[in-house]
Amino acid sequence: MGKNFKSCLKRVPQYTLIEGQGGIMRGRYELDMLRSGFIDEIPLIIIGIDAEGKILFWNKQAEEVTGVTLVEAVELGMQTLLPVFTPKDQNNPDVSMALHELRSVFLEKNSIDGKETALLSKDGRVRHVKWSGYIADNAGSGGEKVLILSGVDQTDLHALREVVTEKARYVRNVEKRIKEGSKLDHMTGLFNYHHLISELTRCFYQAVENDSSVSLAMLNIGRYNSVNSAYGTINGDRFLKELAVLVKNSVHGNFVVCRFGGAEIAILMPETDIKTAFKWSRRVFLNIAEHDFGLKEAGLKVNLPARMVLGGFPHCEDARTPEQLIGRVIDKLAEARAVASPSVLICSPNSLLTDDILPDNLMKGEYPYTVEFVNALARAVKSKDNYTQEHSTAMSEYAVSIAEHMGLSKDAVRDVRLGSILHDVGKIGIDKSILLKPDALTTDEREVIKQHPRIGAEIIRNVHPLKRVIPIVLHHHERYDGKGYLNGLKGEEIPMGARIVSLSDVFQALTSNRPYRRALPRNDALSIIKEYSGTFFDPRIVKAFFEVHAANA
Fold it and tell me: Which homologous superfamily does the CATH classification assign to the domain defined by 193-346?
C-alpha cells in the first residue's frame, strides 16, 4: 500500500495544490496548523496520510463520523480506512468509495473535489460525505508530500433529499391518480363521457388520416330506473357495476368502454370496421341476454331489455366529424329506446330515411288504419333487424319508379310500394341468432331463412286492404328461370309486382354496406343486374330499370 502511494506522490511537484474546501491552506504552513488543536475545532472531517500510508492527521470530526479513534487510526494506518471506505456489501451502490478513489488524488491534476460518497462507520452505519482532496508539502520530512482529505458529513442532508425525493414521487403518483381519476366514472370504474369524446376525436381523425376505420357502439338498458324506484339505489348500483364488468370482459382489451350516462354504455372500437364491430356488439348483446345479474336470486322481478346501436367511420357516410358520428349513434339509440323488445340496430350509411315509411294519405278515404298498421309492422321489423327495414324503405323507391315507368295502374303502383315495404316482414318470425349472424349460414339455417316469405304472407293475410300485396310478399324470391323459392314459379307465373320487387331488392342489397361486406360500386351492381337478365330477372323489367336509371343519372 505504502509503495503505491509513494510512487504516486513522487509524480506530483512540490507545493502542487488541488483546490477544494481546504484550498485556503497552502504549503508547509497549513501542516503546522493541522498539527495544532485547530483541526479539532473545524466542523469538517480532516484526514492526513503520508506516502507510507501512515495517518498523520485524524480530527475529532473524523472520529465521530467513522467511529475510529485517533489512536486506532495512527496505529493501524491505511488499514483503518479499509473497512471504512470499502463496502462490506458490494451490491450496495450507496457504499461506493473504495481506496482507488483516494489513490486517484495522487495522480496528475486529479481531484475528488465535490465528490459525494458513502462510507461505512465502525458501528455499521452508512454515512454520506462530500469530499475534497489535495497534496501538501511536508517540509519536516525531507520534502515528502502529504494527502489531505477534508469532508463534510451530509448524512442528514442526504436523508432529507431522500425524503424530498420520496415526497416528490408521492406527489407525482397522486397527480397521476387524479389525472386518471378524472377520466373515470366512479360508480362503475369505466371511463367517463369526457374521456369518450376525447378518444373518439383522436381515433376518428386518425382513421380519416390513415384511411382506416373506427366504430362506436352504444348500449342502453331499458327500464333501469324501475330497479332504483322499486328496489332501491343499492340494487340499481350493484346492477350497473356488474353490467360494467360484463361489458368490459366481453370486448377486446384495446376498446374504450365508457359510461355514457344512466344505464348507457359506449364502446369505442379503434381500427375496427363495421363488420368486426358487429361481431363484438353481438357478443356483448348475447352475453347480457344470458346473464342473470343476480336479479332472480335477489327476488327482483323486472325485465330489463338491452338495446344496442352501432355506427362508425367510414360506414356512416354522412358523418364527417366525430360530433356527427356520435350524433348519428345517439339518434339511433333514441329509436332503439322506443322499441320495447331487445334489439341491435346498425346506423344506415346516411341519415335521410325516416321512421314513417308510408304517407298518411296513401289510402285516404279507403282504409284509414292500414297505413298505421304497415308502419307498425315496419317498426317491428326494425326492432328485429334495423337493416331489413331501412333496406325495404330504400328499395321501395326503385320498385315504384320501375312500376310507374312500365305504366302500371295507380293501384298496382301502390301495391308495389306496399309489397316493397313488407316483403321481408316475415323475418319477424326468424330467430335473431340466425338473422343477425355475421358469418355464413349453415344449410339448415338457410332453410329457416327461406321461410320468411311464407311467414310474411301469413302475417298480412287477414288484412283485407293488403290482399293484393300477399302474392308480392310470398313470391319475391322466385326466379324468372324457375329456380327460386318458395314454389319454383317461372316467367309470367310470377306476379308482376313480385318480379319488380325481386330486382329492386337485389340491386339495393348490392349497393348497401352490410356487416359482412362493403357495398359494391354502382356500376358493378348494374353489370350484375344485366348479367342475370333472363335467369334471375324478367328482361322487360331489367330494360325498364336501366331506362329509369339512365333518366335519373
Answer: Reverse transcriptase/Diguanylate cyclase domain (3.30.70.270)
